[in-house]
Design brief:
5 strands, 3-stranded antiparallel sheet, alpha+beta, Ribosomal Protein L22, Chain A, single chain
Length: about 130
């Protein structure tokens, strides 16, 4: 297995807080899947949770080499947590198609956040 792409992103948590304040459920539904929203709603520090996932979505598209274009939706990239807390990346739609075309079969995801910032590193692996 070899590295086919890598992306990293940092997001100010205040930016996400402002988007939620300004646009509420419309913003959350546009950017996050049902599972991401449900997990975030259960968190005490949910703004940090959402900011870390926002950063991971950005980092994943950097790893794909596409950015937000070619029909990719925010919800085509989903970050869920295993019972251990380990983040897992799931792709669907156009993002999944592009990943398949590139031979990406596995994703490694690392998230971190503080009160002020969230960051993510995403590595795309394949044969």
């Amino acid at each position: 297995m070899r590295i086919l792409g890598h992306g990293i992103d940092m997001t100010p948590t205040q930016r996400i807080a402002e988007m939620i304040e300004r646009h509420g459920d419309h913003f959350l539904a546009r950017v996050y899947t049902d599972a991401e929203r449900a997990a975030g709603a259960a968190k005490k520090r949910n703004t940090e949770h959402f900011a870390a996932r926002f950063a991971a979505k950005e980092a994943a598209l950097k790893a794909l080499g596409t950015g937000w274009r070619d029909g990719i939706a925010w919800t085509d990239v989903e970050v869920v947590s295993e019972p251990s807390g380990r983040p897992v990346l799931r792709l669907r739609g156009e993002a999944a198609r592009i990943a398949g075309d590139l031979g990406i079969t596995q994703w490694l995801v690392s998230l971190t956040h503080t009160k002020d910032h969230a960051a993510a590193s995403v590595i795309a692996m394949g044969e």
